[in-house]
Predict the structure of F-box/LRR-repeat protein.
Amino acid sequence: MATSIVLKSAEQQRLSKLKNEDNGEDLISKLPDAMLHYILSFLPTKEIIQTSILCKRWQNLWTSISNIYLEDSVDRTKSDYPKRSASFLNFVERILLVHDDSDIERLCLSFKMPVNPSCVNSWISIALKHNIKKLSVSLPLGQSYILPRRLFTCESLTVLRLQMICNLNPSLIHWPKLKSLHLSRVTFFNESSTQQLFSSFPLLQNLVLIDCGWQNIKHISISIPNLSCLIFQQYLDIIPTEDLLDCKIEVHAANLVYLGCISNLYVNLLISARSLSNASVDLYNYGGAEKEVGGRSISMLSGIQSVRSLIISDETLECLSGAENFSDDVPVFQNLIYLKVACEMSRRTIEILLYLMEKSPNLQILDIAEGIIQDIEFIEDDWNFEVMPSCLKSHLKVISINAIYGQEPPILLLKYLLKHSTVLKRVMVHCPDSVSDSMGKREELKNQLLILPRSSENCVIEVLDSTL
């Protein structure tokens, strides 16, 4: 069923400006197809279709566009939603079916409405016949989909993004040009097919795995020599049992530069990356045994020892504290220069942080991005820690701490750091709006900080607006 599309007057007026106003001659239509396609590439797909009514020259141009973006924008609150959604799906079908023999560079299908799995299979198959290079499919939860077998042997694919519920169990995989792979909510069927999958893209540079199903996997070893960016996210809401899964995922990536990991430690992720320079790690325990959670946390961090910049969460520090021999087993971060704690800290996690700093002898910058939990009681004696990080005496030059209201916990922390940091050059204290907007409170806080004893004569303390 063809969808009737009427060109809005505003669109018609905008396009008419492209004509020569002196003699009415349509100069733009005389441009070669390649140039017209380039111009059309800046328009949404629906507006590209609308240009077909301008004149005969434009009538079929849209059937050879190389970039197709089809996003569900039907309003579910309207009474005619069923009719509109059916019309939109027919529109999608028509665009893909009438496309000429030219290649499709990019196809993006993003739907919130329920879609018949056979239609999705058919649309992807059409794109494959047109030597698709970049394919993105995002579909709602609640329905399982089956991917066409031909997808796994598409030699033209360079980018593949699948955000949908489906089982990945290909019998044959060959992606010689794939450089970016994003998988979200997919389930890996078994070890052999999964191992084959992750061995089939020699040029892969970017890998994103979000909320994937690993229930059928005991152990896989992924070796991707050209991988430079890995994002792994596993959240609480998809865990089917209360126990940690007996699943070990080893990733060997000699050229990995960036790692972003958010994990409930449901699976045991092990990284081997000698070139890694930047990492963001947020681990948390949803209810597993502390020792096992701590062991998995230690193992995960042990593979990223080469980082120069590390962002870590307060929950990650909590997980580390559960390890049986935490103080001995925390790896040494010889190259670490910048360390940021991305969540509010407690008395316990401050102590864990100091142990981590002790294993970071060359640390230069410490950023406590969200300050310290304010509803806990501190006394002066609380700051007699068992560990004294060596970096305080030799390398730590900059400290940044956020969300300071003038309460005792953050002041005590700063007092401790100022007392023991002998080469410190700069301390940046970021105030919340309630303090920044009041000159009296701001000056009071500044005076509190300036009278704190310092081991470094060159240390400058600055009171700044909050970065939150």
Notes: The longest helix spans residues 81-97. The radius of gyration is 28 Å. Residues 1-8 have pLDDT under 50 and may be disordered.
